[in-house]
Amino acid sequence: MIGRLFGTIVGQGDDGTVTIDVNGVGYEVTVPLGALGRAKKDGDRVILHIHTVVREDAFMLYGFPSLEDREVFRLLIGISSVGPKIATSILGAMPPAELQSAIARRELNRLTAISGVGRKTAERLLLELKDKLGGLSLAGVSVSTTPAVAPVATKQELLRSALANMGFKPAEVDRAVDAVRDRLATSELAELVRDALAAAH
């Protein structure tokens, strides 16, 4: 199994895949939105921690910026009805520490705002991840089991969070969100992030 790749990103697809060149060999890897921005780099080379999925008709690689991201991905795909595609979508909307906080605060609507996550799946995430994520030490967010006083995050807030986690400055985030504001209610989060990225540059 492949556990880690260290190489140069030579291609990116609209479906969340990247091609990473490792000593002349190109590996196609699926990564969550924003993962490359948080990955450790050495010059133009990047480190991705890999989860390998071997099926009868496919050999797929999923890449993450840290070991904790990969660990949370593995917890997610261990839940009934959550496959690699939905798990990748979840981590693209919320890095591990934010997901841990959302689970602890039981923010059901924040989870259902993620593409591919319906109410039943969100309820299962709240039930099955509470103890598992609570036992992980995840950097970035102070977790409290007290319900949040602020309103549940909207798709716009998820979009802002995703862009901020990619390293964009507040002014760039504002410009990007404004560019897609009229489609917030009708478009999937992944599509909004792609279009917002183009507007932010």
How many alpha or pi helices?
A: 9
Indicate the mean pLDDT. Answer: 82
Q: Helix fraction?
A: 40-55%
Under CATH, the homologous superfamily of the largest domain reads: 5' to 3' exonuclease, C-terminal subdomain
Q: What integer value in Å does the Rg equal?
A: 17 Å
CATH class of the largest domain: Mainly Alpha
Structure in a nutshell:
With 201 residues, the protein is an alpha+beta fold. The chain has helices spanning 35-38, 67-77, 84-93, 96-104, 108-112, 119-134, 155-165, 170-180, 189-200; strands spanning 4-12, 17-22, 25-30, 41-42, 45-55, 58-64.
Polypeptide structure, described:
This protein is α+β, with helices and mostly antiparallel strands. It starts with a strand and ends with a helix. It is globular, with a radius of gyration of 17 Å. It has nine helices and six strands. It has helices at 35-38, 67-77, 84-93, 96-104, 108-112, 119-134, 155-165, 170-180, 189-200; strands at residues 4-12, 17-22, 25-30, 41-42, 45-55, 58-64. It has three domains: 4-65, OB fold (Dihydrolipoamide Acetyltransferase, E2P); 68-134, 5' to 3' exonuclease, C-terminal subdomain (DNA polymerase, domain 1); 155-200. The protein has a five-stranded mixed barrel. Helix 7 crosses helix 8 (170-180), helix 7 (155-165) packs across helix 9 (189-200) and helix 8 crosses helix 9 (189-200).
